[in-house]
Each structure stands twice: as structure tokens, then as C-alpha cells.
Amino acid sequence: MIKVGIIGATGYAGGELVRLLMGHKDARIVWYGSRSYIDKKYAEVYQNMFQIVEDVCKDDNLEKLAEEADVIFTATPQGFCASMMTEEILSKAKVIDLSADYRIKDVNVYESWYGIEHKSPQFLEEAVYGLCEINREKIRGARLIANPGCYPTCSTLSIYPMVKEGLIDPSTIIIDAKSGTSGAGRGAKVDNLFCEVNENIKAYGVAGHRHTPEIEEQLGYAAGEKITLNFTPHLVPMNRGILITAYASLKETVTYEEIKAVYDKYYQKEQFVRVLDKDICPQTKWVEGSNYVDVNFKIDPRTGRIIMMGAMDNLVKGAAGQAVQNMNLLFGLPENTGLNLVPVFP
Amino acid sequence: MIKVGIIGATGYAGGELVRLLMGHKDARIVWYGSRSYIDKKYAEVYQNMFQIVEDVCKDDNLEKLAEEADVIFTATPQGFCASMMTEEILSKAKVIDLSADYRIKDVNVYESWYGIEHKSPQFLEEAVYGLCEINREKIRGARLIANPGCYPTCSTLSIYPMVKEGLIDPSTIIIDAKSGTSGAGRGAKVDNLFCEVNENIKAYGVAGHRHTPEIEEQLGYAAGEKITLNFTPHLVPMNRGILITAYASLKETVTYEEIKAVYDKYYQKEQFVRVLDKDICPQTKWVEGSNYVDVNFKIDPRTGRIIMMGAMDNLVKGAAGQAVQNMNLLFGLPENTGLNLVPVFP
Amino acid sequence: MIKVGIIGATGYAGGELVRLLMGHKDARIVWYGSRSYIDKKYAEVYQNMFQIVEDVCKDDNLEKLAEEADVIFTATPQGFCASMMTEEILSKAKVIDLSADYRIKDVNVYESWYGIEHKSPQFLEEAVYGLCEINREKIRGARLIANPGCYPTCSTLSIYPMVKEGLIDPSTIIIDAKSGTSGAGRGAKVDNLFCEVNENIKAYGVAGHRHTPEIEEQLGYAAGEKITLNFTPHLVPMNRGILITAYASLKETVTYEEIKAVYDKYYQKEQFVRVLDKDICPQTKWVEGSNYVDVNFKIDPRTGRIIMMGAMDNLVKGAAGQAVQNMNLLFGLPENTGLNLVPVFP
Amino acid sequence: MIKVGIIGATGYAGGELVRLLMGHKDARIVWYGSRSYIDKKYAEVYQNMFQIVEDVCKDDNLEKLAEEADVIFTATPQGFCASMMTEEILSKAKVIDLSADYRIKDVNVYESWYGIEHKSPQFLEEAVYGLCEINREKIRGARLIANPGCYPTCSTLSIYPMVKEGLIDPSTIIIDAKSGTSGAGRGAKVDNLFCEVNENIKAYGVAGHRHTPEIEEQLGYAAGEKITLNFTPHLVPMNRGILITAYASLKETVTYEEIKAVYDKYYQKEQFVRVLDKDICPQTKWVEGSNYVDVNFKIDPRTGRIIMMGAMDNLVKGAAGQAVQNMNLLFGLPENTGLNLVPVFP
């Protein structure tokens, strides 16, 4: 039984971790860290957990937690994990960081986009980017996992085969992303009030969203060259779900069947990436509550572009589900342990 | 392994049955019945099931199905199950009917409220009303289960202890209910279009909803007398969830602790009925996707009334979850098999 | 041209006042008071007003404002208006208070339900409860208007004819109310975040909501006796709209036509109260954005009760629209000036 | 007083026409055409019009209507208006067609994208594309107006200045559009049910949506050359609103101020196109219920692209509002008559 500690257990991603781990037969949560709710019953913060979780919230003492847990999930604001990380902690427990602190290898890029100093760049090289479908082998032996961002997970998986196979011109990639509101977190801000989000849609972080360099880095590895792209997120009036619609110019004329074969090459054996049938566009509702990413594409012969689409639950495959998938890999469990979640519809 | 057949597998309740049974270790679906989609892949109707369910839809031949299945779920319009039922079918397979056909013992009451002739009243006496928390023992030995309606499940469980203990005047019961839109089914009607339901709330079926006599009958058994009450459902712009707010006059002055003890008496050992802590009002989001009913109450000393509240997922405890719970009882399995679903929040 | 000052112009009710007054040919806003946004352009707080309102926000100096305005709307938290009110202010400008400070005549009742001291009880007697359809004549000559609460407006108008005519037993009145989330205001609270409200419904303030004594007082005037009733509000995942479903026992057997005649007696000449046709239940979407209250009723001969229903836009007839209606009366304008708003559907 | 006839008065666009014309001081509706509801009271179809509209629905006899009305709005399915149009009708009444029948000058393009035969191509040359901000002068003298599509209105106005001034490479234009569900009409289809749309987002019509050639044609006029572009619409869980996010490569390095000056050049004098302040992204909620299009842009120096954004109410500026704007131009009225609608927020 893996002993699990969560720092940031009362955010939405933390809450989802708790939900998933309740159904994980080989893991047990021993630490519900939440600075805001210390000593309060966890189930009083998330009443859905009433009579399911009896524990009270604890502080965010990573060092102490490292002695009690086999693995630590940090679902915390940017900078927190980096500021706390020590060799001692890593020598005692595996760490899966759901923040962005170890996702970007180049510390200057991190500091420039996030506007904060990185407090433990010495661990950047060691950290493994936990996109399981792509970095599976590296993840198995790691101590420190940088759990991918929600938008980067959906974007990268949707575009990866095309870049990896050199079928599109990377300089033409444009990603138009749409996210449910849980991605904005549980902080009490006017912008996230029901009445401000409901019956509304807007772009935000245009030409400057922090997930941009993360996507560029990962797709750059696939391309074998530096990639610069456009990424535009939008806020959608729904709780969960990310949809990305990506555009790129095809290098040459291709058929549906050729591209389908490429996607199948990378994903046919992947349980959590579903390449939909021809002409079926991904919908976020079809993956809600599950660890699936549904992807598909459409070739536009008129413009010579391909439109690549992906849909995912931002709190599962985009956060907690992928974190559990990483945990399973770290501990040698079947990768889908606790993750055979059937999407909830409607 | 229990072989399961579903008639009406492409309605919302049928779809939820499929979702739940995918996670049930002792059951396997052998028949996805859907008259509208015969020979179509089930996963093309519900794309959330892509790569999870490979079967195609079949017809609604109950007699043939009875030879292939151990249990048949009928998630069909009123009248269908009654019109098909035969002794032969029941001799071969258990039947759990999610429609109203066998819920009301008095065939005249049924025919009067539903406006159709009952085609097999000879089975009414045998049929067991499948509200597990109350009729558990009767269910175990049954062949034909009348799976309770969504509103009646939530209403009855919220009010039952008060009536059973004789603490309220039954003639004063008023139930004001609110339901998500999945309760209206998947039929293509203007009234259920997104734009008609969204940003809107209305009462419907005022003083005439068909679930009224069902609630009256069940609470009447608890009271040991005939009960006539008001039941008013409302349509709420959300997919899932039922909330009921019920009012009744207390027969005498009581304390919170006394009433709490009464609710605990009936529900403390029940996994799926959670009596919330003092002053915590049930919310549908806290039970979404799960088989829980959250109940609580508030005494109003000013008016001498008690306000009883219950929240539930109409598709789980209000339909498919309760049907599985009944199946577990029928086949001697632990009652919560396949039903340890943690509510999804947010 | 009436010079209008608004204190609390950046709350939702204040914002709606601005919207309505932009379309009022005889009024001009001279003061956008908002303590939180002093010196900020109003249209930067509410971007819908971009290029429509050019003013910047000012403070909440009521005394200074009284010298510049003919009428002052206070859309402020409970206690503010009462703490600022002076004879001098009232001698210079009419005041329409959208808070609860002057709605309840008995200062002890106010202080008990609101939990704060009333700082200017000397104006309670003078203040007129601004429910135009009922207090029209008193309003015309007033200096200080207590603009009714949202729930009380909808509740009172829906039930008033039945109580006034003595057709129901007042001690049996139960009001089950449902409101959109704008009623909770624009404060940044976790409970009002999109993800907490969306796909959810809950009761709140059960047996203790502050609008209870206000409704009791107004219906008490109609009944000619003290009334105690149950009022239960619910939070619904929509921006605007209040629906009330009220129950009461009929004193004697009545027909639909008799009751219809009673409602028509009070409302046939009222532009803003629409008595719907037989069996048509009010829906909040049908009045959205307008000053209408749609009411109707259903007699239940089985229980001897009548179900009374009302739907209204909480920000219009429930706040800003009624405030403008009061202003029109105060200044001798046609009562519907600026209020001929056609409901927006869908 | 202009006598107005509406064919298709019970669709969402038709209903919005009625709403707007109720507030138009110089127009009066004399014909509520609705084949589905002949002889039914209009206010029974749209209860928001109760006690506002007393008329009953009539048939769609254009010839008869042309004798009774000064202007005819056809808010009908593709093909209807073209199949009915005659010289005689046009000689008697102005026609503003809200369908696509006369929007595309090349009948082959129309027939290819719409898959139907055009029954009156002889009027194509005469018809004026009613995008008022661009074709104002041509509209004034016209008999037959092709009222622009919702997506084309928002897309064209957002991109037009950049194309007209030759600042972007037209071959790089990609338009990612998001629409509320009223754009899908009031037909009873499973895909538009509340439970299918709510908590969901999807792309549709990828690389094949019928509004593509319309946008290409209009931007092509501005560019002075044929344009081929990508247009991808998405369905968003909200009633109203269109947001478009468009991407294109800048031909040369430009500053914010330079581009701002270009947008101002075209829109500073336009009441209904608001160029937002720097870094403010358009939101559909800020224009809801009004005739505004809010536009803005962001330069991305990293990729050399510009992101152009536009938000609009699809039923107002995207349909009924623009139709009324066209009517005002046709009859020599101030262009904003009946259109000074303040956006409703929240």
C-alpha cells in the first residue's frame, strides 16, 4: 500500500486527487495538506467526501511529510514546490509536482514567463516531464515528476504525431484552446464568480499565457528543433473540460488514411488516448470524469492545413489523473490502476 | 458473472446503467436493447463509450433476452414492460423495471394517473418496490422489481423516518422538488432544448405529477394510513441532480437532537443515505455521479414545522444506481458492489 | 431632467440601475458612487458600458450628493443607508433605499433578524414600502422609499390577492423560492464561484432568511392580522430570475374562475403584473430583463390547497426596475417611463 | 409608420426581430408568419410576449404579404426565400432576407456549399449584402437585402481593417469561432438538448461550414483578391453570443498604436462597433442583448502574427439587430432607431 501525501489538497486538483485515490486499491492518503484549512475536517471543505474521508487537514511541512509518505503530490501555486525542495526530501519520497516549477528545463524561460525566481534550479535536470504516453520509460526510474499542465497535455498529445513524423510545418502551428472554469482554481475572485462566467466566453492571456513555452518545449523535442507557436486559451462556462483546436500547414498532400495511420502508430496501444473515427469531433462531455484524451483531425485540402482536435477532462488527464498515472509508473503498478474511469454522460 | 440485458439502453437511465455496470466486477452486459438504434454500434450513440463498449444495439425482444440473460433491466416508457411481461420471462430471468409499471399496487390508481391501461396487473402483487433501504428483505427473494421513481426515492427517504415515527402530521406534507434536465429524458422536444432550459426555472405538473401517488403510497405504508400530499416538481438548468424540500407540521415540540436520533436510527447503518451534520443543507453537486442520498432537516419553532431536505443524483440513486443495488440484492452480492462511487466535485 | 445619484453603482443592482436609467428619457445619472472603485472609469468596471458611460466612480458622500441630485438610490449593504441618513439629506433629495434598512417598521424585528443596530429608527415611520402595485398612493408623496427585497416582491405579489380577499388560511402559507445567483451579489466568495454554483442546487437560510419578516409584515397588512410563515430560498445555477412556489390551504372550495377573477381584480390594470392563462406556469426566462412579474395559481382539490406561483427578474422588478418605478411615482412621471422592457428570450 | 411582415417569426431570430421591433417607434408588425403555428396566438409560442403581442400567426404567403407590408423579413431556412422571390414582390415591398440565399454572388459557390439549387439567381446581382458598416451606401437604395450570417458579421468586422489596409497576408487567415446555442435554431434535435450541450464544447462543420465562402467573399472584396481561409465554429453552452478569435501573419513589423489607428479609422464613427482599450479582450456577455460588436487585437511579436478578436450577440447584430439596422437605412431613418440597446449584464 503506497502512502500518499497531498499538499494543496483543498484546491480543485487536490480534491480530484482525493477522489481518484479513494478508488485506488494500492494507495492510501496519509496527509491532507491545506494551509488554509489546518485542523478542519477535510469533508467539511468538500462535503462530497462526507463519511468517505474522516481526516483533518494538515500543514504543508514537506520535510515531515517526506518521512511519512512514499509519494508526495504538490498541487500548489507556482514557486511553492521549488522553494521547498531539498535533496533530503527526494531521498525519502517520490515527488509529483502538479505546479509548473519543474516543467521547463531552461530556468531563464521559466523565470521570464512566470515572473518569479526559481529557488531550486539544481533539480531541473533530474525532473522528468510526466507526460506518460511520451516519457513512460524515463518516468519509471524518476524521483521528481513535473506533472504536465492541462493545456500542454491536451495540446501536445493532439499535435505530437504530426510533428514527430515531420508532416506539418512547426512554424505554422496555432493552438486555440477552450477550458472549463475549474482550471482557474478555487480562489475567490470576481472574475470567476458564477455571474461573470456564465453565459459568457472570452479569450485571456492572449500571446502571453504561461503554458506557451511548455508546449513549445515538448513539441520542440518531437520536432528536433525549436518551435515558436501561438496559443490562445478561452474561458468556457462549464466546470470541467479542455478542448483544443490546432491548425498547421501540411508539408505535402496527404490522405485521411495516411494521417490516421500516423495517429494509430502512436496511440493504438495507449488506453488513455482515443483516436476517434473519421469525422467525429471530440467533445469534452465524452471524457468528463475520466482519464481519456479524445483526439481527431480533419484535413482541409482547400487551405492545405490540418485541423487537430483534442478533448480532455482538465482535472483528470490534465491534472490528478495524470498524476496518478505517473504514480503508478513510479511504483511499478499497472499504469491504469485506479484510472479505469468511465466518462460520465450526460 | 451475472449476464445482464438492458432494454432502453440508449436513454439517459440506460446509458447510466451501462456506465455503472462497466465498473461492476460481477456483471457483464450481453444485450444492449434500443429499438431506435438497432444494429448501430452502442458507442456511436454514446461516444463516451468509445473503445469501452464494442457491442451493437439489439431489439427489445424480452422473451429472447430472457433466455440469454440472468437479469433484465427495462428502462423504457410507461406501459412497455407491463405489455411484454409473461410468466415465462419471469421464470427465466429476474426483471428490474425502471418504469412505473409495477410501482403502484392499485391498478386503478396507476391507470388513472398514467392514463393508460395496465396490461399485466396479475404481476402487481408479486412485484417488490425496490427501495432498498426500506424493502431490503423483500427484494432479496423477488423475481420482479419495481425500481422506484427518481422523485419518490429522494422524497420518501427524506421524509420516511418522520412519518414512520409518527412525528409529523401526514396531512400537512408538502414536497417542493427540483430536478436536473436529464430527468426529462433524451427525447427531442423543444421544451428540453438548451436555450429553453438554460437560464430558466419553472414548475411543471403542478398538482398532477405522476410521482405523487407513488410517494403517497410509500409514505402511507410508513404511516399506516392513507396519505394525500402536495408534490411540485421544478425543472432546473443542470444535467443531473434532484433536490427536495419538504414541509410538514410537527405533532409536538421536539429538539434537534431528538430528530437527529430518529434519522440516525434509520440511516446510520446505511451506506447510501448520509444524514448531514447540523445546519448543513444538502447540495446536489455533493452527490453527483454517486449513489448517495444526502438528507437533513431543520426545525422551525416559529411555525411548528420541520423542513426536510434531500439531494441525490437522479440517474444514479434515482434510477440506474438503485437498479444495480437491487440487482446486487437479488443475486446475493454485497449491496454496494459496483456502487462505491465517489461524488464528482466540481 | 431628474438628476440621479447612485451609491453602490458597481454592485449588480447598481449596474442594473445604470442600464435602466440609460434608457430613461427623463433621468440623467450625475453620480456613480462606488467606494471600491473611486476614480476608476465606470465602464472599466462594467465593460458593457464602454462608450455608453464616460464617468468615473465617486465616493459615497451622501450629504454632498444630496446637493447635486434630485434623487439618490442606495444599493448598499444593510446598515449603510440607515447610518448615513439625516433630515438634511431628506430635505434636499428623495432617497430610494434598495437595502433593507427601512423596510421593516418594527426596529426590534429588524435588529433581531439582521443582527445589527438600526442607526436612524426615527425615519422608519416616514419611510414608505415601495411596492408600487400596493402602495402607489403613499409612494407619490414620500421622501424616503424602502425599495422592497427581491423575494418579498415576488412572494407578496403572488400571494397578496388570496390573503387580501381572505381566501386562504394565512397560518398555512409556505413559500419555496428559487433565485438566480446575481441575488448573491458581486462579492468574491468561494460559495459564489462558477464551479460551486454551476450544476448545483441547494437551499440556504432555511427557517432563518432575513426576507421572512418582510414578507410576513406585508402579507400581514393585507390579512389584517399577524402572519407567521415558512420561507425557504434556493440558489439556482442561472444569472437572473426568481421563481416562487407558494402553498396555502383554501378556506373553502373554490373554482378556477373565482380565483382568476380575484387575481384579475387586483392586477388587470397593472402593466407589470401579468396573470398568465390557465395552466401556464410562470418561467423566469419569460420575464428576463423586464419589469414584469408573471403570476399564476393552481387549485389542488385533493389536498384543498392552492399553489401560487410567481416569476420575476430579481435585478429588475426585484431591485432596479422597481426602484425606477418608484422614482417615476415620486416625480409624477408615467409609472412605466423607461420600463417598457420586452423580456429577452432565449 | 413602416408596416413590417415577418416570415419565420417563431424561430429564435424571428422572435428577436419581434422583440426589437416592439421598441422601434417607427415600425409596426402587421404579419407574424409561422407555418408551424398558423392561427395560434404568437404569445402562446413565446410567452415572454404575453400581453405585449396579441396577434395570431399567419402563413408564409409572400405575395399576399407584399401587398400589406412595406418591408418583409424572411427568417427562414435556406432556399425558402429564393424559391418564393418574384419581381412582383420586390416591386411592392422591400425584402430583408436573413437566410443565406442572396449572400453569395456566385450561384455555383452557393449551390456547392449549400447543396441545393438556387431558384432565383436572377436577383443575385441586385441583392445587397447588408453589412451596414461596410455597404451602407449601397443598402440605402436597395430593394433586396441579404442580411449577413452571424459568424460572417463578427468575423468580417473583426478582420476587415487589417485586410483592407493590406497589413496581413490573407492566405494565413484562420478564424476560430465560438457560438451560443441559439445559433442552432429552435428545431427539436437531440444534439441541441440541454443535457447534450450543457457542460460541453465541441467543434463542428470543421473545414466545411457554410459560412466559410461568405466570409471569404467579403474579405476578398476588401483585399481585392480571392481569399481562402480556415473557419472553425464551436458550440458553447450559453444561449447567446459569438466570439471569434482570428489569426493572421503580419506583413511587416507594426506597433500597437499603428494598428489601433487603423481600427479607429474604420470604426471610430461607428456606433455599433466598439474598439476596446488596449489589452481588453472582448467578452460576449458585454454585448448581450445589444447591437454592438466589440473588437480588439493583440500583436504577437514572437510569431509575427496578429490575433484579432470580436464578440457579438448572434441574435442581435448577428441577425435581427442588423436586419433592423438595414431596415432603418432602407427607409431613411437614423440608423440606430430602435437599436440603442444597452447590453444586459450579468
SSE diagram, text form:
4 copies of one chain form a homotetramer.
Chain A: E1 2-7, H1 12-22, E2 27-33, H2 42-45, H3 62-68, E3 71-74, H4 80-84, H5 87-92, E4 94-97, H6 107-114, E5 128-129, H7 132-140, E6 144-146, H8 150-164, E7 174-179, H9 194-197, E8 202-203, H10 211-223, E9 230-235, E10 242-249, H11 256-267, E11 273-275, E12 293-300, E13 305-312, H12 316-330
Parallel strand pairs in A: 1-2, 1-3, 3-4, 4-6, 5-6, 7-9, 11-12
Antiparallel strand pairs in A: 7-10, 8-9, 10-13, 12-13
Query: Could you report the average pLDDT of chain A, rounded to the nearest whole number?
Result: 98
> Biggest β-sheet of chain A, characterized?
7 strands, mixed
What is the largest interface, and how many residues per chain?
A-D, 45 and 45 residues
Give me the secondary-structure category of chain A. alpha/beta
Helix content of chain A: 25-40%
Task: Tell me about this structure.
The structure is a homotetramer of 346-residue chains. The model of chain A has no long low-confidence stretch (mean pLDDT 98). The relative contact order of chain A is 0.15. Chain A has twelve helices and 13 strands. By secondary structure, chain A is α/β, with parallel strands linked by helices. Chain A has helices at 12-22, 42-45, 62-68, 80-84, 87-92, 107-114, 132-140, 150-164, 194-197, 211-223, 256-267, 316-330; strands at residues 2-7, 27-33, 71-74, 94-97, 128-129, 144-146, 174-179, 202-203, 230-235, 242-249, 273-275, 293-300, 305-312. In chain A, helix 7 (132-140) links the parallel strand 5 and strand 6 (144-146). In chain A, strands 8-9-7-10-13-12-11 form a seven-stranded mixed β-sheet. In chain A, helix 1 (12-22) crosses helix 12.
